[in-house]
Design goal:
2 copies of one chain form a homodimer.
Chain A lengths: L10 H32 L3 H12 L4 E2 H8 L3 H13 L3 E6 L2 E9 L1 H21 L5 H21 L2
Antiparallel strand pairs in A: 1-3, 2-3
Helix pairs in contact in A: 1-5, 2-5, 3-4
Chain B binds a DNA duplex through helix 1, helix 4 and strand 3.
Chain lengths: 157, 157
Amino acid sequence: MSVTQPVHPDNASKDRLRLWLRMLKASRMIETQLRENLRAEFQSTLPRFDVMAALSRYQDGLKMSQLSDVLRVSNGNVTGIVDRLADDGCVVRVPVPGDRRASLVRLTKRGHEEFAVQAKAHEDWINDILSEFSANQAVTVSGHLDALVTALEGKAP
Amino acid sequence: MSVTQPVHPDNASKDRLRLWLRMLKASRMIETQLRENLRAEFQSTLPRFDVMAALSRYQDGLKMSQLSDVLRVSNGNVTGIVDRLADDGCVVRVPVPGDRRASLVRLTKRGHEEFAVQAKAHEDWINDILSEFSANQAVTVSGHLDALVTALEGKAP
DNA sequence: AGATTATACTTGAAGTCTAAAATATTTTTA
DNA sequence: TAAAAATATTTTAGACTTCAAGTATAATCT
């Protein structure tokens, strides 16, 4: 009498690998598309948009290190992006009273207006790109990914 | 008489946006993790790994232009990555008989060995990172993403 | 054949990204 | 309080990236 046993005991590993490769491919394609749209319509870039989006969520402003934390890009990187946004008058660096090392980065009025327009366009682009997913599917997969992100954050906080 | 109508007629748009933001976040976290692992364990990088993975799938070797095609990175970019891999003795440029412009890039014996180890580690890392997903879930979500990728490829070929 | 066009690749400029070193400024410790 | 440790940010070095221009070679046209 034989015991029923899968030929590939750890097939799950391959399935997960495939999932990752698909996810990577999809993300890159979407990113490329968004990058193109941002450049064509607003002469802007994804990193700039990301920074503005973060600042838009935190009306009181964020310190450089908090920004790089939220955006998960390196510290030194944020410097350049914020520099350029400041040049364009979209953000300002506000000194933090009592700590001369730090400064808060905040959206200017112009930055807010600019971002409002871009955010709307961005949502429309995504809605179009992801039309493949129904609202229900979107919610379901979001849930999985959220759990994944939470798990990852728990591993190396 | 009032008609029953949802307050947010295009809620799906928000759901899809959330899906994208989660996907982006998850992808970036995973990429960062992989990058770190590759650097710490193999003193290598993601682009290098990608090139070796491609060459591993095409045992007969790939021309530079084919490589840049498969990897979807620019032509000039591949030159540098292959240069460095060649310096490390992981790949060689083999002249194509009958066409002195082109050369085939192939993994060396050392490159093959190196990649075998890295690929195994890579799969294990992913299996660990994505342990949140069951094999079934992985397959299901893969399916959605695949459909998405196909749809995207159909839009701008 | 000789001139044009196309292909394969490399080079160079300009910019982005990460990780790590350097700087400046608190905060903590002995 | 002086020294050490921690924090916030910038600077730097080097890999990666694209795009445009350049070089060499091959294929095509007249």
